[in-house]
Amino acid sequence: MIPSPGDRGALSRDFERRALPHVAGLRALAANLCSRSEDAEELVQETLFLALRAFGSLRVDSNVRAWLFQVARNAHRSACRRRLRRAEQAWPWPEREGGTTEPVDPRTGSRPEELARGCDLRRALAGLPSQQRELVISSLLLDVPRVELARTLHWPEATVRTRLLRARRLLRRQLDERPAA
């Protein structure tokens, strides 16, 4: 049902009051999910757009921060799937000096060895399975309490603790095994 113009104004004000205070957290999450700042800002905008459209169906007692973060993660997954489909259709493989070919990221023009020169932590995070990466980012970088993560993911708190511990151990191993510069 489409809200009347008066209801849309009230809904918009309620969205501003309850959701917009979490934009800084959304930006931090997007920066950790996306490799480029432009993509992160686009993800935040897409998240806010999708959240505003669906805000009328959100229950009053819902955890808005957890809901917004879930909207952002879903939007990021959808964007990744779209980029993957586009890349599969037309991925350039330019010739290199030695007659070999290797892929080039069509958005940045970067080759794999250039992309690998990032921060050790970012590279280690990227090496984690997506579920573990999201747990680490949410818990350690965004300071989302484990209780809130458990509620959001519909897991027992002990499961969150165990999976977070495993993710941190894997992250530590990956950081310890980083290649020498």
Give the topology.
Layout: H1 5-18, H2 23-33, H3 37-54, H4 64-89, H5 112-115, H6 120-127, H7 130-141, H8 146-153, H9 157-176
Helix pairs in contact: 2-3, 2-4, 2-7, 3-4, 6-9, 7-9, 8-9
Describe this structure in words.
- This protein is mainly alpha-helical and 181 residues long.
- Helix content is 67%, strand content 0%.
- The protein has 9 helices and no strands.
- It has helices at residues 5-18, 23-33, 37-54, 64-89, 112-115, 120-127, 130-141, 146-153, 157-176.
- Helix 2 crosses helix 3 (37-54), helix 3 (37-54) crosses helix 4 (64-89) and helix 6 packs across helix 9 (157-176).
- The longest helix is centred in the middle third of the chain and has 26 residues, at 64-89.
- It is globular.
Short description:
With 181 residues, this protein is mainly α.
DSSP E strands, number: 0
Number of helices: 9
Q: Encode the helix/strand succession as letters.
A: HHHHHHHHH
Largest sheet: none
**Helicity range of the residues?**
55-70%
Average of per-residue pLDDT values: 76
Shape, please? globular
| Oligomer status | single chain
What ranges have pLDDT less than 50 throughout 5 or more consecutive residues? Answer: 90-102, 111-119
- What proportion strand? under 5%
Radius of gyration (CA) equals 20 Å
Distance between the termini: 58 Å
The SS-based structural class is mainly alpha
